Amino acid sequence: MNQLLSRRPPLATDSMSDDELYTLIMNMDWNRSGVGYMPDLDVMGPPPVYHIRPYTLVAKHVAFDPWTEVYAMHHVQQHTTIPIPQVHRVIPDQRDGGRGFWLIMDFIEGECLLEAWPKLSWWRRFQVVCTLRSYIQQLHRAPLPSPDIPGPSDGTGRSFPCLGNHFDDGAGPFSTYAAMAAWHDHQNHRFQVLLHQQGVKRIWQYSKFDQSLPLVFCHFDLHMRNIMLDKNNRVWLIDWAFAGAYPAWFEYIPLGSTVKTANPMFSLPRSFAWFIGFIVGGCCAPWYYDNYIGDFYLRIESYRKRLIDSDYFVKQGIDPKLWQPADVARPSLSHVMVQRCFDIVYDTLLVVRGLFVPS
To answer: Where are the annotated coiled coils located (predicted)?
Structure first.
């Protein structure tokens, strides 16, 4: 796996052994060295990312296999021009039986977009969202190591659990796209059973997961805190822990959830929310969010700890036509055509922007 670590100019820490670097991390003042902590938002505590002073490096703690994240970052560097931190070392965490790891990466001096956005001019905001759209287009065009295996990858063809967003602590691993689609259908069916068991007379209907769009490489944790503006005004994408192969509209999910939240502390600035369809684009992502996935997590939460008989309706002798899904969650042709027209306009804006903004 070490071949995934990026080649780069020598660092002052290169001469340190893993044990010496680990000792340096353990001896840091973690309260003073934390990166990206926002007390109003981080109610569960600061992110486990620390600046290794005096070096331009950070140590990020991960509690699970780090090689899918390392592979995702290597893959992005190989196939796109998106600025991302380089991973220089992966060190096992010697605490708690050695179950965790430390990723040693570049320290990006700057601000996350959530902090920077209110201070940007409207023209600079337009430049940023155009840049983000071009980044997402590059990601979605990048080749997949295993085109029909959804979720994270380490490049070996193995399947790994899908993490984050509506997958929460993990689902799968799924060996095929169809298996991931079936998982979504099964979660909706479990909710359907739960409602009926609780006395709801009319059987709740759901639509089957749409497999018509191909899997593409997605960041899958795209929100304003994972977008950085450095001191030279370059736009960076960070935190690739959830990245993997998904339908393109999955890219919208973390952004859409912050648009729809009832808690104003966690909601996107309205002036940024206007642009998220433009940023993701090309796949009717807002439609899929509003009509399929937006309430999915809430439905899962309602029965997460309940045992539910998946053959409930069969045992009840209820006609399958009353509970089996009759359609697929897919936008109409007219909706798709309108989206394509918007994308033509959007991509024209990217070209116009390129005429005024040097690369």
So the answer is: none
Instruction: Quote the CA–CA distance of 346 and 343 in Å, as a whole number.
Output: 5
Instruction: Give mean pLDDT, residues 183-201.
Output: 91
Tokens (6 digits) for 203:
């059987």
DSSP reduced 3-state for 150: coil
The residue range of the domain holding 14 is 2-107
Distance CA 124, CA 212 (A): 36
Q: Check pLDDT > 60 for residue 30.
A: yes
* Mean pLDDT of the residues in the chain: 86
CA-wise closest residue to 161 among 177, 148, 174: 174
As for how many domains the chain has, the answer is 2
Of 78, 107, 136, which one is at a domain's C-terminal end?
107
H or E stretch covering 179: helix 177-197
Q: What is the pLDDT of residues 96-134, one digit of tens each?
A: 666 789 999 999 999 999 999 999 999 899 899 999 999
Residue 2 pLDDT greater than 90, yes or no: no
State the Cα–Cα distance between residues 141 and 347, nearest whole angstrom: 15
Beta bridge partners of 105: 58, 87
User: pTM for the complete prediction?
Assistant: 0.89
Bridge-partner residues for 171, per DSSP? 162
Domain end point (choices 45, 75, 107): 107
Q: Phi first, then psi: give them for residue 162, nearest 5 degrees.
A: -80, 135
Length of the chain: 359
